C-alpha cells in the first residue's frame, strides 16, 4: 500500500500503523507530497515539517519493530540497501538521469526519456519534452538533435552538482530530473524538497539506527533489505 504524506499526516503515526495492521497490509510505502506537474505547492515546504517527518518515522518504526504485522517499509528497505551496496561507480546508475534507459511513449507515438513525468508536460524554457515519434524517428536520430543534446547536458550538470554538494549522492546518483525542474525551474540544480523527504531523511534515520544498534542487532527496526 502506498500512502501520501502531507503535513497533517505527520501527527498520526500510530493511526497509520493501526490502519495497516487492521487491514492486513504487510508491505507499506510512503510518498511525501511533491511539487510536480500541476501541483505547484506542497504542505511540506515549511522546513519545520522536516522534524515532524523524522518524528513520524521514528515512531512508526518503533511500532513496526515491536510488532510482527508489517514485513517491510519500502523507504527503509531502500535506505538500508543503499548502505550495503557498492559505490555508485560499481553498480547500476540512476535510471532517470541516463538517456533512453527509461523510454516513455504516449498514445500517439511521441516519446521522451529521463523522468517519465516529463512526457505530456510543458515548460516555459523547453516547451514540451517530446524528442520524437516512434512511427517516424529512431532513438539514434533523436540523440543527435539540438534539443536532446541541450537536455542531456543540463541533466548531466545537475548530476555533477549533486555529486559535489550532497553527502548522500551514492544513495540516489543525482536526484530526479522532473522534481528538479518542477521545483527549481532547471535540471542543473541540486537539492529539492523531494530528495530531502524521499532520500536524505531516510538515509539519516537508517544511519542513526545502525549507530544505535551496532549492525542492526538488538532493538533495530525489523525491515527487509
Descriptive notes:
This protein is an alpha/beta fold and 225 residues long. It is 43% helix and 11% strand. The chain folds into 2 domains: 2-91 and 195-213, no CATH class; 95-191, no CATH class. The chain has helices spanning 13-22, 49-66, 74-84, 139-142, 146-165, 169-172, 177-184, 193-213; strands spanning 2-5, 27-32, 72-73, 103-105, 110-113, 122-123, 127-128, 132-133. The strands form 3 sheets. The protein has a 3-stranded parallel sheet. Strands 4-5-8 form a 3-stranded antiparallel sheet, with no helix packed on it. A two-stranded antiparallel ribbon has the order 6-7. α1 (13-22) links the parallel β1 and β2 (27-32). The longest helix has 21 residues, at 193-213. The chain starts with a strand and ends in a 12-residue tail after the last helix. Mean pLDDT is 89; it is low at 216-225.
User: Beta fraction of the residues?
Assistant: 5-15%
Extended strand count? 8
What is the count of helical runs?
8
Helix-and-strand structural type: alpha/beta
Largest sheet: 3 strands, parallel
Task: Give the key terms.
2 domains; disordered C terminus; alpha/beta; 225 residues; elongated; three-stranded antiparallel beta sheet
Topology at a glance:
Blueprint: E1 2-5, H1 13-22, E2 27-32, H2 49-66, E3 72-73, H3 74-84, E4 103-105, E5 110-113, E6 122-123, E7 127-128, E8 132-133, H4 139-142, H5 146-165, H6 169-172, H7 177-184, H8 193-213
Parallel strand pairs: 1-2, 2-3
Antiparallel strand pairs: 4-5, 5-8, 6-7
